[in-house]
Amino acid sequence: MRGLRYENVVNVKYTTLPPKKKIKRQAPKRSRTAEKIIEGYLLASGVHFAEVTGDRAFYSPMLDTVNVPKMEQFAEQAEYYSTVFHELGHSTGHPTRENRFESGASFGNEPYAKEELVAEFTAAILCNYTEVGNDKSVKNSAAYIQNWSRAIKNDPKMFTVACYAADKAARRIVGGKIEKVVERTEAVA
């Protein structure tokens, strides 16, 4: 057992130590391309969209609403748009759109995992398409996909189904003009 120890504490302003510099982080900037795609999808689909102060991003199928934290709360542009595109990806599964939601989906089970993969693949496609992605967002997306892949037991068939659904979702969000991604990817390869 350790004994009690007493310490003298002095306010830093009474010392000769230099004050800590506060680094003010600049809020990420909006991407004109991404914003145009988001606005077009919201108008065409009727999905409600709200940026709110908080730490939760989600899509509510009952309300057909996407809620995301305000852009200023994100450290980087890519994090914000990846989150927005992920939640918009979920919104494409609504019964009035792709009708993709499976009954019996609950957190952690296979149908839920498949939907999470669809949304994350959609976000990755759209971040690439709008050129807002970066190395960090790609690594975060890969980690997210790897985590949910365990719930589908790394089934290649499920990955194919999720990728197909994500392609369809991304096309719906951009209004069918996703070929540019393929052309740009092929040009890089």
Outline the fold blueprint.
Elements: H1 32-45, E1 48-52, E2 58-60, E3 65-69, H2 77-91, H3 110-130, H4 135-149, H5 156-174, H6 179-188
Parallel strand pairs: 1-3
Antiparallel strand pairs: 2-3
Overall description:
There is one protein chain. This protein is mainly α and 189 residues long. The protein has one domain. It has helices at 32-45, 77-91, 110-130, 135-149, 156-174, 179-188, and strands at 48-52, 58-60, 65-69. It has a 3-stranded mixed sheet, with helices on one face. A hairpin with a 4-residue loop joins strand 2 (58-60) and strand 3 (65-69). Helix 3 runs antiparallel to helix 4. It starts with 31 loop residues before the first helix and ends with a helix.
Give me the strand/helix succession.
HEEEHHHHH
Query: What is the terminal separation in angstroms?
Result: 63 Å
Please give the radius of gyration in angstroms.
21 Å
Query: Strand fraction band?
Result: 5-15%
> How would you classify the helix and strand content by structural class?
mainly alpha
Strand order of the largest sheet: 1-3-2
The overall number of domains is 1
* Average of the residue pLDDT scores: 86
Characterize the main sheet.
3 strands, mixed
Q: Which word captures the global form? A: globular
Structure summary, number of beta strands:
3
